[in-house]
Specification:
By secondary structure, chain A is mainly α. Chain A contains nine helices and no strands. Chain B starts with 11 loop residues before the first strand and ends in a 10-residue tail after the last helix. Chain B contains eight helices and ten strands. Chain B is globular, with a radius of gyration of 18 Å. The chains are: A mainly alpha, B alpha/beta. Chains A and B meet through α1 and α5 of A and α3 of B.
Chain lengths: ~230, ~240
């Protein structure tokens, strides 16, 4: 019996809904990310022996914390598909496999948004005199989150399919993310400067982040089907 | 434009020609050639490691053959795999179910992957009833016994009413009551082609139209209509010496 194939968007929505339902039920990734971020802030506070940060150092502490918290979720995002046959189930369906890529990137984006809703106030409390720089930091974090989510969804299936997935994922992912981190830190350091919020080169860094996101979205769209082939 | 030519009554559902597969430099399937008409059942016999599951994965479009050609439901693999996906139901060793979802949620998820009308709710409810899991529809898979998971996997494989049913020891883990409930669902049906892997030679010979015997090294011992294979010959593929070359 031949039926119409589901659209890529419909399949992506189904996978995303499944992932969010499982995360709400099991709390495997997001609570670990929140706990990790809080712990890292505490370590930086006592390790640097500083109660107030600004400029490049403040941006660096925040962005590195988000990056490493994201790795926790990225390492786990395809584990259920690998261990419980999700890859095979999706490849047996008349569905475009890139739906899986978009769904996983969207799920990571949701996890990162929840992380930042929690982590930004904690960061402010721990390290900042003023929260004035946090609102303009939101678009920077959004574009960085897209970068983390898209590259994470692209690299994670390769890592998940290897025996040393905890090692392979970060080893491939971190070098790929250097341009995005440089751009986010470049925009963030002026927003968190000691003398008040400055928008120096803000637009340029946002454009770099946007371009990075677009390039990796296109790579994911083109290459993901090939990456999950047996 | 003229009307398309009517399909012949016995169109070919499966065709393999010189099909081989290797994992690295280890060949597990060698030079398999076979044919099966639509609506027929192919039984695949062979001892552990003879390449049966690899053959099933190739036919299910999950694995690319290393050598040789294969055609499933009129589509050449792997080039036209996208055309045939959605028409195959696979019941393998892995149930392909999410442990943290309940039975109904799992079937709803699969129904969405296959774009079933109404989210497949009616079909899911009917299948759960048929396998005796209606009262467990809200039970999470990680709280189910192996037999219940197998029954749910049967529902998952049949949910989209596939034209080709690929069954790898489909009655494993089922108690006699479970076998009684599930076996009719997986049996021959109009328009349904089946590939059945089983170690139960008598059942295979009773159900199949054609039989493929694989030796331990993945070579074909025989590929014949069921009438030309007796039980003794079929059992020979399980003997220690078979495939020793």
């Amino acid at each position: 019996m031949t039926r119409p194939s589901p659209s890529t968007a419909a399949v992506a929505r189904a996978i995303l809904a499944k992932d969010l339902r499982v995360e709400l039920r099991t709390l495997q990734s997001v609570p670990a990310m929140l706990l990790f971020a809080t712990t890292v802030f505490v370590i930086f506070r006592f390790g640097l022996d500083r109660t107030r940060l600004d400029g490049g150092l403040a941006a660096g502490v925040l962005l590195v914390t988000i990056l490493f918290a994201a790795l926790l979720a990225i390492n786990r995002i395809f584990v259920a598909e690998r261990e419980q046959g999700g890859f095979e189930a999706i490849r047996l369906a008349p569905a475009d496999a890139t739906a899986l890529f978009f769904a996983k990137a969207a799920a990571l984006l949701v996890y990162l948004a929840v992380l930042e809703l929690f982590a930004l106030p904690v960061f402010w409390l721990f390290f900042l005199d003023s929260g004035a720089g946090l609102a303009p930091l939101v678009p920077v974090l959004l574009l960085l989150d897209i970068a983390l989510a898209v590259t994470g969804a692209l690299i994670s299936p390769m890592a998940t399919n290897s025996r040393a997935r905890d090692l392979i994922g970060p080893l491939i992912l971190l070098p790929l993310l250097i341009p995005a981190m440089i751009a986010a830190a470049g925009a963030g350091q002026h927003l968190l400067a000691a003398g008040g919020v400055s928008y120096e080169q803000f637009g340029t860094w946002l454009a770099v982040l946007g371009l990075y996101d677009l390039v990796f979205l296109l790579i994911g769209w083109a290459a993901f089907d090939f990456l999950i082939e047996d | 434009m003229s009307d398309p030519a009517p399909e012949p009554a016995d169109a070919t559902a499966l065709r393999a020609d010189g099909l081989s597969h290797a994992y690295g430099d280890r060949w597990v399937l060698r030079d398999v050639s076979l044919g099966l008409d639509e609506g027929q059942t192919l039984a695949v016999l062979g001892s552990n490691g003879a390449g049966k599951s690899t053959l099933l994965r190739i036919l299910a479009t999950l694995l690319r053959p290393t050598e040789g050609g294969v055609e499933v439901l009129g589509c050449e693999l792997p080039r036209e795999a996208w055309k045939v996906r959605g028409r195959i139901g696979l019941l393998g060793h892995q149930p392909l179910l999410y442990r943290d979802l309940d039975a109904r949620e799992n079937l709803h998820f699969h129904a969405r992957l296959f774009a079933l009308p109404g989210g497949g709710e009616e079909r899911a409810a009917e299948l759960l009833e048929r396998v005796g899991l209606s009262h467990r529809a809200s039970t999470r898979v990680d709280e189910m016994s192996a037999g219940m998971i197998r029954r749910l996997a049967v529902c998952r494989a049949l949910l989209h009413e596939p034209d080709l049913l690929i069954l790898d020891e489909p009655l494993a883990n089922l108690d006699p009551a479970g076998v009684e409930e599930v076996a009719p669902l997986l049996g021959p049906a109009p328009g349904r082609t089946r590939v059945l892997v089983t170690h139960d030679v008598d059942a295979a010979l009773a159900e199949a139209d054609r039989v493929l015997g694989l030796e331990r090294d993945g070579r074909v011992a025989f590929a014949l209509p069921v009438g030309e294979v007796d039980a003794e010959r079929a059992r020979r593929v399980y003997s220690e010496r078979a495939g020793a070359r």
